[in-house]
């Protein structure tokens, strides 16, 4: 699937993005994202959000989630899955800014 296209489900999006090289799983922290299997922590200046995909819960709005395709400054690609705004109150201002969609991010 082309960047910026609509995915029917989160699982379809994850499968397609992994085929396109986004093979690592990232976790979100207030000051960084991490990939534990690689023992890697990336500060906001060390990665870019390439694509963002949002998914609405079918029966419950609380089931909504967001999927981000992320690439490090060294070329490591991975995915970050999060609930809408679940951690927004605990993120640093720099992290919030880095996770925003900009003109280099496919939607």
Return the string of H and E elements: HEEEEEEEH
Q: State the helicity in percent bands.
A: 10-25%
Would you tell me the structural class of the helices and strands?
Answer: alpha+beta
Distance between the termini: 13 Å
Assembly context of the chains: single chain
Q: What is the C-alpha radius of gyration, as a whole number of Å? A: 13 Å
Number of helices: 2
Unreliable runs: none
Task: Outline the structure in words.
- The protein is of the alpha+beta class.
- The protein has one domain.
- The chain is 15% helix and 32% strand.
- It has helices spanning 10-19, 93-98, and strands at 24-25, 27-28, 33-35, 40-42, 47-55, 65-72, 77-83.
- Strands 1-7-6-5 form a four-stranded mixed beta sheet, covered by helices on one side. A three-stranded antiparallel beta sheet has the order 2-3-4, with no helix packed on it.
- Strand 2 (27-28) and strand 3 (33-35) form a beta hairpin.
- It starts with 9 loop residues before the first helix and ends in a 9-residue tail after the last helix.
Write the layout of secondary structure elements.
Blueprint: H1 10-19, E1 24-25, E2 27-28, E3 33-35, E4 40-42, E5 47-55, E6 65-72, E7 77-83, H2 93-98
Parallel strand pairs: 1-7
Antiparallel strand pairs: 2-3, 3-4, 5-6, 6-7
Question: How would you summarize what this structure contains?
Answer:
With 107 residues, the protein is an alpha+beta fold. Helix content is 15%, strand content 32%.
Key terms for this structure?
107 residues; alpha+beta; four-stranded mixed beta sheet; 2 helices; 32% strand; globular
């Amino acid at each position: 699937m082309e960047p910026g296209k609509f995915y029917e489900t989160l699982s379809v999006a994850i499968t397609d993005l992994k085929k396109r090289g986004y093979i690592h799983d990232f976790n979100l922290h207030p000051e960084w994202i991490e990939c534990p299997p690689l023992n890697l922590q990336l500060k906001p200046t060390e990665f870019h959000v390439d694509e963002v995909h949002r998914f609405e819960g079918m029966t419950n709005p609380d089931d909504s989630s967001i999927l981000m395709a992320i690439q490090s400054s060294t070329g490591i690609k991975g995915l970050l899955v999060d609930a809408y705004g679940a951690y927004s109150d605990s993120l640093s201002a720099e992290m919030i800014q880095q996770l925003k969609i900009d003109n280099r991010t496919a939607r």
